[in-house]
Amino acid sequence: MIRGVAGKDEIYQINKKYLYEIDLEKNIVVITYRGEFKEYSYFIEVRAGNLREKDQCPSKREKFLYWIGILMLLFVGPLIAEKYPISLVPLLLIGIYSTMKLNYTEEISCAIRYLEKTKCEKCGKNFAYQEIRKPSVREISTPKSYEICITRNFKCKYCGYIHTEKRSEGYSTCKRMNYNILQETLGTKPECRKCGRGNAYNEFRKSDTKSKNNIMTEIKYYKCRYCGNIEVKVEEGLVPPNFSAG
Known about the structure:
By secondary structure, the protein is α+β, with helices and mostly antiparallel strands. The protein is built from three helices and twelve strands; from the N terminus they run βββαααβββββββββ. The chain folds into two domains: about 10-35 and about 170-240, no CATH class; about 40-120.
């Protein structure tokens, strides 16, 4: 759990520094902190270095045909092979070929994307960008929306050009309203840290939920119904099977 109060409050969790700014008049919450450096697998870097001029991203049609070959092996293949045993070997060859080609096309796609991302847009040299600092992450929550913006800064190791990227980087976000509006935040008998009264907190706004790679983080906001003190609770875990935006 992370606890904060109205206004600006510095919050620490797992060696990260979070700054919460809560504007009660506009009901806007801004959370800023430093993220982690972007990491690329060694295999992708090597694959990108070995790209040939004729290598290009596979089309959707190519991928579709390879998937058809794999599905034929899994679902149609056993039925055909049972009736025509001689067809087993050709079906296996089609499935193996399709699987290998699909893996190869994914490798090529990742390598080309890596090459494009690290090519300096000023001097044109490949594998030029190096991230110069941890990214700045800014999360903005309003009554109706929740957005994440990750800003990364790269420097060309050849000409010194600074390149900046601003993206959400695959995070899915939504607003949720919990049905148990009187949830407790601080143990079985929560007391307000400011006025000291017990059973004081109500969840006063929709929670913010973000998810990526099957990991979900939910931020809940509580307010003391006596003095207005605000508490922030952050929960992290696996995305539940029945998860849906509320």
